[in-house]
Amino acid sequence: MVFSVRYGGREGKKYSFGMSSDMLAIRYDKDQSFERLVRSTHSRSEVSTLQEVARFDDANVVVMRVPPQRGVTKARDAARSALKPTGARFVGRVLQDPKSKRPVLYTENYFVRFMADESNRKCKQILKQMGLKVKKQYEAERNTFFVEAKEGLGSEKIFAIGEKLLDHDSVELCHPELVRERSLRAANKNQWHLKKATIDGKTVNAHANVEEAWSLSRGKGVTICVIDDGVDVEHQDFSRTGKVVHGRDVTEGSNNPRPKVDAFPMLDIEGDAHGTCCAGVACASGSHSASGVAPDAKLLPIRFASGLGSNEERDAFLWAADHGADVISCSWGPRDGAWFDPSDPLHNQVTPLPDSTRTALEHATQNGRGGKGCVITWAAGNGNESADNDGYASSDMVMAVAACNDRGTKSVYSDFGNAVWCSFPSSNFKHDGLPDPLTPGIWTTDRSDGTDEGYNPFFSGGDAAKKYTDGFGGTSSACPGVAGVAALIIAQNPHLNWIEVSNIIADTCDQIDKTNGDYDPDTGHSPIYGFGRVNAKKAVEKAKSLLGN
Q1: Which of 112, 315, 317, 538 has the fewest Cβ atoms surrounding its Cβ within 10 A?
Q2: Is the confidence at residue 520, as pLDDT, over 70?
Q3: Active-site residue numbers?
Q4: pTM of the full predicted structure?
């Protein structure tokens, strides 16, 4: 059976998903963990033969793979029987992406936007007739709702309701909330990405000319929003009075953006350590041991730990735009294929940008900064694959940032393609006869909340107090670097709109690795480096030259 959604309205593009033949989704009550759910002997015996594929902790769902000898129907029925008495709300089949075969969750929720000329009363009438309850109405966007159906309707009815509603004459956009795995894009003392440096006796000269820009701009008066997995806002390089503003946790619905989840469960770099590192690259104050690209900029941290495509994703951008963000940095996206394995099917997965998120990006770029628009940077990805397949990084409302290394060439994992706007210095790995990296990665802030859950304990390097790491990297690190440069530009010339800021960055990039970069002689664009490696000093100088023009 095939299920479809349409993004972009009735005439929009259709995306289809099949039902997995070997995966089950298990949803449990919010007040317990999956481990507690299966604590009984009978439950453990039924689940022990299943292999965990993915977790969506914010949705209280674990996806399990059924061994071929059992059969998915038999395993589902047995798991239902064993888990229902212990608090399982749902055990059933799961959708999958047609190319990567990774799970795609559907919820009972929908994003709906009615035609602008429809009355609010009529909108709510239609929703009620469809058996839908309003969870949230977005006052800033006319006739835009997040609604829910009754629990337990099943996939066929959920998708049928969405299609029927979208075909209604009064409806402009509608799709069920579809949630995918969200991947953070970090690949693995001297801040060589900011200036020429000597590390272990070796000269590293592959920087973004940031320190030279500070004589003109340090980002004062500009707010950078980092949407990520939480930020240690008590860190000594964020602790200056007024540095952190309007923090939010959209996943838990609170104003506490601090890390909530222990990092590195079973050495998996998917815990709440990533955001603190990203924020440090963008705007750490430099008052202690790490400086961000824009050290005088304010930080607006948003903790987003929900699945890709969730409504919380939308809420993050609305909160940022409506609470004064000038620049928004996103170092996450769809799951990447293994950069070292060209046969990984994830390389071919196409992940569309849902209307719920697209319209939030539109709000940020049209209404943010008093109508001049928020500048949005996005990590291109770490799969050594085409960023053009990523509907987030390839959106024309964002700058997709690739990673270049400490030798001024492509980081082996960095994504490529037409979508890449620019590149910024980051980490690298030794691979296939390429020369060893000169540095372990990027020196930046790390979790310092006493949990021992940052990058520092798991990588060589960093400081003894475990407040900093030199092992950060990936396009996750490159992205907030460019966000910091955008802040320097805006601080120098606040009259620029988001498109002008993006164009200044493109126009002032340095074309590195010209032999292998495949730069277009007409446009100056490279599928590997975009318009080149960002040059912060040139960018700020150009912004200054445009004052009064």
Answers
A1: 538
A2: yes
A3: 228, 274, 476
A4: 0.88
